[in-house]
Amino acid sequence: GLFGVPELNCPEGFQEAQDKALQESQQLVQKACSTPPGPETVMIFDQLSDSLCRVADLADFVKIAHPDFAFREAAEEACRNIGTVVEKLNTDVELCQSLRRLLADEIVMRSLDPETRRVAELFMFDFEISGIHLDEEKRKKAVNLNVRILDLCNEFLTGAHLPNKIDKHVLPEHIRYNFTAEGNYLQVAGLHADCPDDLVREAAYKIFLYPNADQLSRLEELLASRNSLAQLVGYDTFSHRALQGTMARNPETVRQFLEKLSDKLSKRTQKDFEMMTKMKMKLNPQNSKLMPWDHPYYSGALRAERYNIDPGLYCPFFSLGACMEGLNSLFSQLLGISLYAEQTQRGEVWSEDVRKLAVVHETEGLLGYIYCDFFQRPDKPHQDCHFTVRGGRLRENGEYQLPVVVLMLSLPHSTRGTPTLLSPGMMENLFHEMGHAMHSMLGRTRYQHVTGTRCPTDFAEVPSILMEYFANDYRVVNQFARHYKTGQPLPKNMVSRLCESKKVCAAADMQLQVFYAVLDQIYHGKHPLRKSTTEILKETQEKVYGLPYVPNTAWQLRFSHLVGYGAKYYSYLMSRAVASMVWKQCFAQDPFDRAMGERYRREMLAHGGGKEPMLMVQGMLQKSPSVEDFVDALVSDLDQDFETFITDS
Ligand SMILES: [Zn+2]
Q: What EC number(s) are associated with this protein in UniProt (predicted)?
């Protein structure tokens, strides 16, 4: 069956797997409630979580990726059923009591190792949000808020992607063909940000972002409800709760980080905007004021003018085989790890082009499995992604349960005589996703609740972004990039030009991300909000971004990440800052340094989410970085490399 699970050889098997898991979980709940507080309590909780996650996580993947509808449907059903049980468990007072007894017992708590203590606290954190520790009345309120928030999230997500309709006569005839016609109306489904026609981008921006009253009230209710729930369970704001246990730890640190980053960027951003304005003046002299709909287009145009990177020239050097060789060679030099293709059993994979890799350490042996679902197929989501299918954990019998993950990409198939060729962007994504996979494979946590990538959001992208630094380094690329026909290596200046091209207008791009992150923090900060969400957007945009707010628009209603990344939109920037520091301090001098690779594994990857993230960073860098260090790392990455610049001009 799928992933080697015997009962999953047909869609009906999900029912069986689910029933088994639910039965097992019932027994574990009883066991947890009858066990005196001690390290065993945490182990039972993790076992309980494992029995449910093993089916739910697997089903989570199958429901979106399996080509067979019946499988997808069965998986969806299993997800729903397990979700309901998890919700029940989260409000099970007796179960919660058994954990509270442990956390309240200072002597026992002190005797636990840090990982066990942290995992106990993390389980409690999950209980807390359902208000289980509160009196009857407040608990009811919490349950209602949770239900309401879930609905609002779904409605907001749907609303964020809905097109806006407009009477076609409002738009000049010569640009109407850019939008989908529907009788007398035109549908505007996006920003058309890369369209060369200024007027089309302007129209799309103003129409797509035209405020929708329902969506606006949904957002305002969502933010207010999140705030009420957070306060009900004992936090100042939603942001305070969301940032508990993260690298940033609290909203104040995030605020400082974003503020300092914005200050440091502002001059560079100004320069970028000036360049874009000049470019606009050249192409459109009548109307040269730089507007928000111009940013992506003109930064692209500047990049093209300066570097004229043609991905097609790079592709022949990046065959999938060569890239995988490159990863294998990098991992073996850095970590003593090799990737081996393994034969799959009948029914183990969901599509015949899925490959299974065994991850093997030179002395420790098999560490886990990566299923590579790399190729396009109809109905497959078009998004690069890493899925944990089974978390690693120490079993009761002393064996280690090996982690299993899936990497999903959307690469073109090979054709007769031509292997699958990756563009530079795809190659970088492959390295990025492999960074997540290695985090999963090398995490050796005792508990699956904190396996590999199950760590705080602002730390989760560190291993993957670090791999991007490797993917952009000539010494690494030169090990594997060979023309698939001639065997010629990729010329060095092509690699450096590619890297430099990414820095064009990168300050303005980062500034935009800072603006979004600040907005997210304010929305999830102190309530009631001082002003309407639109007024806050306007104010923040002018202060933190720099391009003017356009009246009668409300970009925040399209900010779908507010749902999944509420109060954590800054995470990507912070992860990048850490990855940048690790790269510069530990690998830039020698990207194949085994001692550094071992330190990286020991200090960062091995702990998954089982250790406070800042302690992992300190262990790796052997110092405690300040907010300024974070900011400097990000900003110095924007500096041009003069060698390339000079040889180029
Ligand atoms: Zn990622």
A: 3.4.24.59
Tens digits of residue pLDDT in 257-300:
999 999 999 999 999 999 999 999 998 888 889 999 999 999 99
Cβ neighbours of residue 141 under 8 Å, at least 6 residues apart? 131, 232
Please give the distance, rounded to the nearest whole angstrom, from the Cα atom of residue 386 to the centre of ligand 1. 8
Catalytic residues: 433
Q: What is the pLDDT of residue 645?
A: 58
Ion ligand 1: protein residues whose beta carbon lies under 5 Å: 464
Which residue pairs from 537-540 have beta carbons closer than 8 angstroms and sit at least 24 positions apart in sequence?
540/515
CATH superfamily entry for domain 2-133: Endopeptidase. Chain P; domain 1 (1.20.1050.40)
Give every residue of the chain whose pLDDT is below 50, as ranges. 649
Retrieve residue 298's tokens.
């003109």
Which residue intervals of 443-505 are DSSP H helices? Answer: 457-460, 462-471, 474-480, 492-501
Q: Which residues contact 112 (CB under 8 A, 6 or more apart)?
A: 39, 42, 120
pLDDT, residue 249, reads 96
Cα 480 to middle of ligand 1, angstroms: 23
Using CA atoms, how far apart are residues 529 and 513, in angstroms rounded to an integer? Answer: 22
Closest to 575 measured CA to CA, from 583, 563, 585: 583
Residue 241 in tokens: 């709760």
Model pLDDT, residue 542 = 96
pLDDT 10s digits, 250-266: 999 999 999 999 999 99
Sketch the domain layout of the chain as residue ranges. Answer: 2-133, 314-490
Q: How far is the CA of 461 from the centre of ligand 1 (A)?
A: 5
CA distance 336 to 363: 8
Q: Which two tokens stand for residue 381?
A: 């989501």
Chain-centroid distance, C-alpha 588: 25
DSSP assigned state of 602: I
The pLDDT value recorded for residue 578 is 98
Q: Which tokens hold the place of 66?
A: 């399996």
- Ligand 1 center from residue 464 Cα (angstroms): 6
Nearest C-alpha neighbor of 40 from the set 86, 105, 91, 87: 105
* C-alpha 269, offset from chain centre: 25
pLDDT tens for each residue of 204-244: 999 999 999 999 999 999 999 999 999 999 999 999 999 99
Q: Please give the CATH topology (third level) of the domain spanning 314-490.
A: Collagenase (Catalytic Domain) (3.40.390)
Q: ipTM, 2 decimals?
A: 0.99
Q: Ligand 1 centre from 429 Cα, in Å?
A: 9
Tokens of 214: 């329902």
Asked if 247 and 617 count as a contact pair (C-beta separation under 8 A), the reply is yes
**Alpha carbon of 462 to ligand 1 centroid (Å):** 9
611 and 114 in contact (C-beta within 8 Å)? yes
Residue 91 is predicted with a pLDDT of 85
Strand locations in 33-104, DSSP E?
A: none
pLDDT in the model for residue 644: 63
